[in-house]
Amino acid sequence: MKFSDRITRLQPAATRVVSERAADMRRQGRDVLSLSTGEPDFVSPPSVMRAAQDALDAGKTFYTPAAGVVELRAAIAAYYKSRFDLDYTPSEVMVGAGGKPLLYEACLALLNPGDEAILIAPAFVSYYEQVRLCDATPVVIQTDPATLDFSLDDIRAAITPRSRLIMLNAPNNPSGRIYSDDLVVGLCKLAMEHDLTIINDEIYERIVFDGRTYRNPLNLCPEAREHVLHINGASKSYAMTGWRIGFAIGPAALIKKMTMLQGHNTSGASSIAQWAALGGLENGQDEVDRMADSFQARKDLITRRLDDMPLLRYIKPEGAFYIFADARATFGKRYGEIQITDDISFCEALLEGAEVATIPGSAFLQPGFFRMSFATSEAVITEAMDRMQRFLTELE
User: Fold this and answer.
1) pTM
2) pLDDT tens digit string along 102-145?
């Protein structure tokens, strides 16, 4: 069998690879603690469950419009009005089977072979591969390792006649950064100046810490409306990862093209999952806030512990549920037979030596760092930090 060039060069998502390896070790009887998966440990809220059961009882098991049921699209538009004071109609909203398919459909709708997409490191693991699947070129903008902020001058210098889009993700996965208003406004102005589209991945916008407020780019630069596509969804804030429901909100012409692609691909998201998400949007906001409060407590716990860790420096997260830590001070050290030379060997040594699973920063285009998820219980976090501290003190 001969495979296509694009599938041959595709790399598996590192987040899944590590999670599956940790699961294999558990099956072998090893007590592995996972800080690798970006998935809340909460069960979906009662409002979601009730809406799904009501939809099943009503027999709503048929195909939906490719863009999603109009009631859910209207509720998403209403949410963007109440949350960000942005006016969208259901024709400017579509629902997909998670955020990833919508990101990919946006790339397919905007990129020709040979075009360029600007990615800001550290970046979500799938951006790079999705751009390459479109036979386009990812252009990676490196950030300041001390702050993980990008430079507008670097973005400007990277723009060429082949540039078509910029990926913006805040709160950022893996760093938890929320970029300054000045940086976001500057990015919007560059998009308008060069006729680029900003794909604004704000899937973590409800999970913010320490009194911070996440602001949508169009709150800061409303004149960029025709240059911004928002990607959001139910997975993270509503603890609905397995339901696979994402939202895309943006210019009607782009939404129409993406809907056409979806019609030829998945035909649309699960009908029952869509009605479940509608229940969450309409009746689950208090539950979302309670889960966000729990993430705040977990963030406080893990950062207190990391403050006392030798050899590590971390970027304080402002949102999402990740810690992105700098492991470069461990390079050149050993744990048993494992020589630590980079972020990948560091994570391997941590997994083998302390049975704690994390993700190398290289997967996010930021070598030298590693990502820990605190979307797990405080008991797991505490035990994982105990193990990590012992591991670090035992390095030679």
Assistant:
1) 0.95
2) 999 999 999 999 999 999 999 999 999 999 999 999 999 999 99
Domain(s) of CATH 3.40.640.10: residues in the chain: 47-283
Residues 37-47: tens digit of each pLDDT: 889 999 999 99
> Please, where in the chain does CATH 3.90.1150.10 lie?
5-43+287-391
Query: What class is the 5-43+287-391 domain?
Result: alpha beta
65 vs 31: CA distance, rounded Å: 46
